[in-house]
Amino acid sequence: MSAQAKGPASYFPSIEKKYGRPVAEWKELIRSSPLTRHMELVAWLKTEHGLGHGHANALVAHTLAEKG
């Protein structure tokens, strides 16, 4: 049995279901954006792509954490 995702990754199944795009695609959009600050990216995902705040925040947090 696999462990349940914790933190931002716990949102990923509902993000994929609600918006119809894989998380990898959202993360690539974030990485390719000229924006770099967390809340700028969250606002961008909300206004340009229609994501809710929690989903946008989870994607940005997880993507930026990968950068180190």
UniProtKB/TrEMBL annotation:
- Domain of life per record: Bacteria
The entry's protein name is DUF4287 domain-containing protein
